[in-house]
Amino acid sequence: MRRSSEARWGGGVTALLFLFIFLPLLAVLINVIFPGIFFGRQEFNGFQLLGEIANRPLWRRSLTNSLMLSIGAATLGTLIGGILATIRARWDFTAARLLDLTAWLLLIAPSFMIAQGWVLFASADGLVDQWLGWTWVTSFIFQPTGLIFVMALSKFPLAYLAILAATEWNVRQFGQAARLNGASPFTVWRTIELPLAAPSYLAGWTLVFMDTIGDFGLPAALSTVYTFPTLTYSIYTAIYQSPVRFDMAGVLAFYLVMILALAMLVLVLARRRSRYDFLNASAVKTHKSRPRKVWLYNLGITVFLLFCLGIPLGTSTVVSFLRHLGEGMSLNNWTLEHYRQLLTDGTGDHRLLGYVEGLGHSLFIAGLAAIFSMLIGFVTAYVLSFSQFRFKGALQLFSVISLAVPGVVLGIGYIFIWNQKWLEPLGLHLYGTPALLVIAGIAGAIPYAVRVQLGAFGNLSGTMLNAAAIQGAGTFQRMKHIVLPLVRQSLLLATLASFGTSIFDLALSSMLKPPNYSLMPLVIDRAFEFSQYGYATAATVLSCTIVVILILALQLTGRWLFKLWDNTPENNTQV
């Protein structure tokens, strides 16, 4: 009886994740073999369409640009992350906490906002040209090497956090044995510590590579000043050009998925061939010592962080207060006009942008996506942690796959699946409706919701659940009365994490936006595209401020409600 109940819950969430995540991805792959099958044309062209990438310059250039940018950013980002993680693990200094905070801020900050800040800083009439007259910065940034540099500065936290996690434990005896044989500290690091940490370096490199090749924000921001087609941006333009090029979008999406699958395969094979049994009873927590010239570490780390985070965010903040970007930093050029236009929706072109309306729509959609993804994530984490569900492997795969699949690929898959005429009589023709944006937000947030809750579920013992099952408690009762009170804090964190990841999703918003329906990321991107930089940056600053305040307020409110709930007579009696 218990297993049948758990099977129903497991089958339900597996079916939902298959429908929300895996089926759209499968549709993209099917469309490559049968182009037009989702729009009434049943043609079988084999795989010859895939070979067209060698004959079509735009397709070929998009592929080579994406590979070059991803490999370069992954290599440089892993190098930066590895150096910073090594310093952070060995030494204790004040700026170390600032480094951790900056890494997380860069990790959750929308890439298109970071890219827009760099564009405004380094463009021909940008801040660096106005302040310092350094024209060489423009020529350096707006070419492939410069784009790799910018992307590495925004993506290195993925490698930094992966490598830092591997330095938690220190096996001293290996290094001490090498030192007794005359090895220098650098030789010990190069021949012992680095090989032992190689899996974490590979994991960091793969994460940066995958996040870079699937990034939509950088090419979207660059399109106003520099032509650099990538796979993600070319997929987007193929859908929103006349005539619509589903063949181009499908082929490029197929190559993007295959590259990501290959990257994940390399990571899995490398981890299987690596040895992890060097952690034994002699392993101890890494002890951080205070460096001799601590001020030098604090200064160096602070300058670096101001460079990688202060330039894009600081530039956006400054530009939001400038009347005209090209008129310099004179006192007469400072204004609050852009913020006033945001709150009143302004006149003329600004009224068409509809920031207030777009912000309201984005908050509403992100809120719904966060709530539903938290609930689905809760059931998924329960099934993975405590049930005997037969298809745990499939459920695990579906719960993480959207983390690797770019939003533009998921978006085109949703168009194929939900833009079908036969769904209209059933009331399920969701393309062009806000409901599809909610589903897409759930799909993108599920990996975070599941991962956050799995961490909390891992601390629970199954003994309590088994005892409750023996007493006749069903699966829902066990989840409600036993698991829920113990993991409620993780539910709150999962909801907030899902909310934060959904609200700034430019790719899915661009692909699935209903007609005449404004969304905050699109308002910002459109204003930037039309060179209304003051309006765009003011919207960026105000949106980020509102979202941060909302998250903090919800977190404090949640904790207050938890305490209030704990002090109710019913719960005190139970205790």
Short note summarizing the structure:
By secondary structure, the chain is mostly helical. The chain is built from 27 helices and 2 strands.
Write the layout of secondary structure elements.
Blueprint: H1 2-33, H2 57-90, H3 95-108, H4 111-122, H5 127-131, H6 135-141, H7 144-166, E1 169-170, H8 172-180, H9 185-196, H10 198-213, H11 217-222, H12 231-239, H13 246-273, E2 284-285, H14 294-320, H15 337-344, H16 349-353, H17 355-386, H18 392-404, H19 407-418, H20 434-457, H21 462-470, H22 475-486, H23 488-503, H24 506-512, H25 520-529, H26 533-566, H27 569-574
Antiparallel strand pairs: 1-2
Question: Strand order across the biggest sheet?
Answer: 1-2
User: Which class do the helix and strand fractions yield?
Assistant: mainly alpha
The geometry reads as globular
Q: How many helices? A: 27
Strand content: under 5%
Number of strands: 2
Stretches with pLDDT under 50, minimum 5 residues? 276-282, 346-352
Q: Give the % helix.
A: over 70%
The separation of the N and C termini measures 30 Å
Radius of gyration: 25 Å
Query: Residue-averaged pLDDT, rounded?
Result: 79
Quickly list its features.
575 residues, mainly alpha, 27 helices, 1% strand
Structure description:
This protein has 575 residues and is mainly α. 73% of the residues lie in helices and 1% in strands. Strands 1-2 form a two-stranded antiparallel sheet. The radius of gyration is 25 Å and the shape is globular. The protein starts with a helix and ends with a helix. 42% of the residues are buried.
